[in-house]
Design brief:
transferase, methyltransferase, elongated, 3 domains, 16% strand, Substrate Binding Domain Of Dnak, Chain:A, Domain 2, alpha/beta, Diphthine synthase, Methyltransferase, Cobalt-precorrin-4 Transmethylase, Domain 2, five-stranded parallel sheet
Length: 345
């Protein structure tokens, strides 16, 4: 049998009673530490509560899973994990493999830092968008950048998990992660992340020395966020109850404000650029086709496509708007080419 037991977020004391009973009677307990560190004192308490064999499980051992699955065929095995056992996708995959191998599984859930963190910051959990991870070796932060963008457009908050390397005892500093996002903005130029963005740094949630610090990125440049682990939250559209709670629960260097309001859809940004450009190009060539009736319908269609693009955008039909301005641009370019003129776009 293979049991997945959550350790909770506050050390040994946060292990559920059922979880303690399960690990105390297990033949083998694997403790994984690659998702979050566990203190030496908590580690000793866990070991003292176990009567069977105790093993510290490296990331590769859990990801490979073969040893754990093989042992589970004949013995009662526990995989003890920080937080809730199924926040880590590796554990879900391991459970699926166990079931496929006819190994009985059991789940004992516990508090997760993700769910606890949102409440500790005073945010509404249903407004959390897609979560992203930032790693130190990432050559580009384009993926988390656009996760933030999409969440902000929807008015949702973005949770950014920062790298923790168990073997190297390395934690990515929030300031380095924010610096990487600002550098990504320079290349993407979508006005998603600037120094005026409001961010929340949640540190050591669940520990006695937990801290929540928030403010503009520019205001946090020199801030010491204390001991890791840290998580960055980029709030989207803040309800007034969220802002009020955040000011009470955390240390706000700046007054909380909405990041979503300044974030504009890429389609809107494109249309602001291309509609005037295509219209100007059309106006330039219209005199060149004066009194040429065979081209009037093409000129008229180009103008209609431009107007359609503006209407579609106003209705929120972004794809249709982009298609329409594209059609208009194609017609205008063809007419310009016929007169030996260069393209405008």
């Amino acid at each position: 049998m293979l049991s997945f037991v959550g350790l909770g977020i506050s050390g040994f004391e946060s292990i559920p009673i059922e979880g303690l009973e399960t690990i105390s009677t297990a033949d083998i307990v694997y403790l994984e530490q690659f998702t979050s560190p566990i203190s030496e004192s908590d580690l000793k308490k866990i070991q003292d509560s176990i009567k069977g064999e105790f093993k510290l499980a490296k990331r590769w051992l859990v990801e490979d899973g073969n040893e754990i699955l093989e042992m589970s065929k004949e013995k009662n095995v526990v995989l003890l994990a920080y937080g809730d056992p199924y926040i880590a996708t590796t554990h879900i995959e391991l459970r699926a493999r166990a079931i496929e191998n006819k190994i009985k599984t059991h789940s004992i859930h516990a508090s997760s830092s993700l769910t606890s963190m949102i409440g500790e910051c005073g945010l509404h959990f249903y407004k959390i968008g897609r979560i992203a991870t930032i790693m130190s070796e990432m050559k580009s932060l384009t993926t988390p950048y656009y996760v933030i963008y999409k969440n902000l457009i929807e008015g949702n908050h973005t949770v950014l998990l920062l790298e923790y390397n168990q073997d190297k005892k390395f934690f990515l500093d929030p300031k380095d992660a924010l610096k990487g996002l600002l550098e990504t903005e320079q290349g993407q130029t979508r006005n998603v992340i600037t120094e005026s963005n409001y961010v929340i740094i949640a540190s050591r949630i669940g520990f006695k020395d937990q801290a929540i610090v928030c403010g503009k990125i520019s205001s946090l440049k020199e801030t010491d966020f204390g001991k890791p682990p840290h998580t960055i939250i980029i709030p989207g559209r803040l309800h007034f109850t969220e802002s009020d709670a955040l000011k009470l629960f955390g240390k706000c260097i700046d007054e909380p404000f909405d990041n979503s309001e300044k974030t504009e859809k890429i389609s809107n940004q494109m249309m602001k650029k291309y509609v005037p450009m295509v219209r100007e190009a059309l106006e330039e060539i219209e005199p060149l086709y004066k009194n040429q009736k065979e081209f009037e319908i093409i000129l008229d269609n180009a103008e209609r496509y431009i107007k359609d693009a503006e209407i579609f955008l106003g209705e929120g039909r972004d794809e249709n708007a982009i298609l329409s301005i594209g059609y208009a641009d194609g017609l205008v370019d063809a007419l310009r080419l016929a007169k030996g003129l260069e393209f405008k776009m």
